[in-house]
Amino acid sequence: MNIGIDIKALYKGQAGIAAYIRNTLDKLQETDVSNRYFLFEKEPSSYKITNPCFNKVLIPSKLPGTLWLMFILPFHLKKYSIDVFWGPEQLVPCVFKSPGVRMASTVLDLTFLHYPETMQTTNFLINKLFLLRSIRRSDKILTISNFIKNDICESYPNEVTADKVVVTYPGRPEWGAADTAPVKRGEHLLFVGSFEPRKNLSNLLKALCILKDGKNKDVSLHVVGPAGWKNDAIHHVIRANNLGTQISFIGYCGEKELAREYAFCKAFIYPSLYEGFGLPVLEALAANTLVLSSLGTVMDEIAGGCFVPFDPENPQDIAETIFAVYQPGFNTAAYMKGAQEVLARYSWKSTAEKTLEVLSGLW
């Protein structure tokens, strides 16, 4: 079977979808010597091929990535005799027909339906214009949690049945013991993710203000991740409330540095309003770090009882949850006792095997 995969996200991407694609491909390279893979990219990425069954195919274009996917890539699928194509970035080519090519797409979330105001305009328009057409063109849809599977089925009842959507969970981080070796933990909280509205940092900052003004407690926060977008208002809150000395922007971290950030903080806090999965939660648990996160989101499914819940829409509740964690009698062990069982449910090997099972089933 000839499998085509869109890997344009690997050109500059490091985290998020790029990490999902890279880790899945790495495990496919380790295990599959029966199928031929053609990894299509618009710009040359640094992704390394280690399996002779895998080939990178550069198709340069001046068009933006989505237009390249829709208007350029389809004509190359026939050239490389692609039997099954996998689009891991929400979309598959759905403007032109590709006769004989079966399609599978990975739908990561439906942010554009539920929180459109949090998105960059370009990404919102891409999803609005092409996601429904892509779902119709896809013979199978992969997604990263039952939370999102249910969301897809409820949002597109005329286009999607439950058997069309297959959950392929991402894997846990493969950190060694040395990466998260015991250190003396600091007193700061850690946030990992892009600095953008859906991550709900505004309510977290309001909670820090409540703690500062109402409890006379200054809680420091380390923010790890890219700058993101639509964050002017958040910076304004920091300046207006003199939080500058409490917030440290670390930027992007490599794997070893990231592991140490988790191991060094007092607790990891993830107040996101909506996620498809929430990989940072697994990263924190892998570093034996207490997790505080949003109730009523995918975190209930992913982490089970291994996190301290709060209402992400209520800064007062976030503040009270944080304050409780800093009290001498707080029982951290109660929230960590099932962490290893949670982590055991997720592996990139399993992600790759399930993905290949879906792709093979289409051939």
What structural keywords apply?
single chain; 363 residues; alpha/beta; Rossmann fold; seven-stranded parallel β-sheet; six-stranded parallel β-sheet; globular
Structure description:
With 363 residues, the chain is α/β, with parallel strands linked by helices. It has 2 domains: 2-170 and 347-361, Rossmann fold (3-Layer(aba) Sandwich); 189-344, Rossmann fold (3-Layer(aba) Sandwich), CATH 3.40.50.2000. It contains 15 helices and 13 strands. It has helices at residues 17-31, 65-71, 74-79, 111-114, 121-137, 146-155, 201-214, 232-240, 255-264, 279-286, 299-303, 315-325, 332-336, 339-344, 348-361; strands at 2-6, 36-41, 54-58, 84-87, 102-107, 140-143, 165-167, 189-192, 221-224, 247-251, 267-270, 291-294, 308-310. The protein has a 7-stranded parallel β-sheet with strand order 3-2-1-4-5-6-7, sandwiched between helices. Strands 10-9-8-11-12-13 form a 6-stranded parallel β-sheet, sandwiched between helices. α1 packs across α15 (348-361) and α7 packs parallel to α8 (232-240). The chain is globular, with a radius of gyration of 21 Å.
